[in-house]
Design a protein that fits this description.
Elements lengths: L1 E9 L4 E10 L2 E6 L6 E10 L1 E6 L38 H7 L2 E6 L7 E9 L5 H4 E10 L2 H4 L12 H23 L10 H11 L4 E5 L2 H14 L4 E4 L6 H9 L3 E4 L19 H7 L2 E4 L16 H5 L4 H7 L2 H7 L15 E4 L10 E6 L2 E5 L1
Parallel strand pairs: 1-4, 5-6, 8-9, 9-10, 10-11, 11-12
Antiparallel strand pairs: 1-2, 2-3, 4-13, 6-7, 7-8, 13-14, 14-15
Helix pairs in contact: 4-5
Length: 376
């Protein structure tokens, strides 16, 4: 067993002082107020590993031209059998910078040029190949709003309006629902359904999460009409144009979660005309479950934690800010082994030279599942 002496431990929920974080193998063994009988290998301020619940790291790669991006395939607007992990290159040096800044886990999603772009994957940023980096599939990328209707020059059936996007989604969901109904009546078997429709039946049944890209309040209301019609439980991704209390009331009414961001990016299109860092006040006070995202490379994943400063402006505590990039994404994504520094969890955490909320703070030791993956 090894231990870190934490003058301050932001454990992902609250804060503890002058404790020892003891770990053995890939697991945290105990948090102790007494000096343990084992090797103490470091000292400082400790935080859990940060988790980015929406990124394109390894798909849109640093130092490579946009023409080589793997984020969107132009084959068709509906590619449910795509998998983001199949396009990831782990030699993207953005992974190194993320690990240096305590972002140890990424949800890598297809882009938003397609209505359904495929399955997103949770990966470990600290491994050098996709076999070791891959943790598990996390949810299917669906896109509303401007992006999927902006790709009319791509191949396949393409919408030119948001109305067209909605029509394609409804057509495919209704087909999947009818297939489910026929199977329940014994009039059809799973082997008689084409692979795409079979996949969509799993969305409707809730076997796969839907990670739904959207920014505007009206697009969120369309998504909620699908929730009401089909009983799906999507996770709202972005919401950067949300600028009223009422939209959050609708989200709460349906008990949906939001992964919010990217903050500190340029509002480069019309559907972001109400974007403002001040909108975080609505998010902060809404009572909606939310976590923060980078949408890397829209903002660099290494800067994910810095976006919490906007929430402090509107009353968030340090402990809450840490939770927005650790325990909150773990809760929303169902990652029971991650998000907090506590007994039995994976030993993924960092030791900082000073309070991470100070300008000159940086991790001096970074542990990924018990292994030292970076040291200054």
């Amino acid at each position: 067993m090894k231990a870190i002496k934490a003058s301050i431990l932001y454990d992902g929920i609250g804060v503890q002082k002058n404790v020892y974080v003891c770990f053995t193998g890939d697991r945290i063994a105990e948090i102790s107020g007494s000096k343990p009988d084992c090797e103490i290998i470091g000292e400082g301020i400790v935080t859990p590993a940060f988790i980015d619940p929406h990124s394109h790291i390894g798909l849109d790669r640093a130092g490579e031209p946009g023409s080589e991006s793997e984020a969107n395939d132009r084959l068709d607007s509906m590619i449910p059998l795509g998998r983001a992990i199949d396009g990831v290159y782990m030699d993207d040096h953005a992974f190194t910078e993320s690990v240096e800044n305590n972002v140890l886990y990424s949800v890598v999603l297809p882009g938003s040029g397609n209505i359904i772009g495929g399955m997103g994957s949770l990966i470990r940023n600290f491994f050098k190949n996709r076999k070791d980096a891959f943790v598990r599939d996390i949810g299917v990328k669906m896109a509303l709003g401007y992006n999927p209707r902006s790709t009319t020059e791509w191949k396949g059936t393409r919408p030119t309006t948001r109305m067209g996007v909605a029509a394609i989604i409804r057509e495919n969901f209704i087909l999947a629902q009818k297939s489910l109904n026929l199977m329940e009546k014994g009039k059809k078997t799973i082997d008689e359904i084409d692979p795409k429709t079979e996949f969509l039946t799993k969305l409707i049944k809730g076997e796969y999460r839907i990670m739904c890209h959207l920014h505007k309040e009206d697009d969120a209301l369309f998504l909620m009409s699908l929730v009401d019609q089909f009983g799906i439980k999507p996770i709202i991704n972005h919401g950067m144009d949300f600028h009223s209390k009422e939209i959050f009331q609708e989200i709460r009414k349906r008990d949906l979660s939001l992964v919010y961001g990217p903050l500190d990016s340029h509002p480069y299109k019309v559907e972001l005309k109400h974007e403002s860092w001040r909108n975080v006040e609505y998010v902060q006070k809404s009572g909606v479950r939310f976590a923060l995202i980078s949408d890397h490379p829209v903002i660099l994943q290494r800067n994910l934690f810095l976006t919490t400063r906007h929430f402090m402006r509107f009353g968030a505590t340090k402990e809450q800010c840490i939770s927005y990039v650790s325990s909150r994404p773990a809760q929303i994504l169902g990652l029971d082994d991650l998000g907090t520094v506590e007994n039995g969890k994976l030993a993924s955490f960092s030791v900082w030279n000073k309070d991470p909320f100070e300008m000159g703070a940086y991790p001096t030791m970074v542990f990924g599942e018990g292994n030292l993956v970076h040291q200054e």
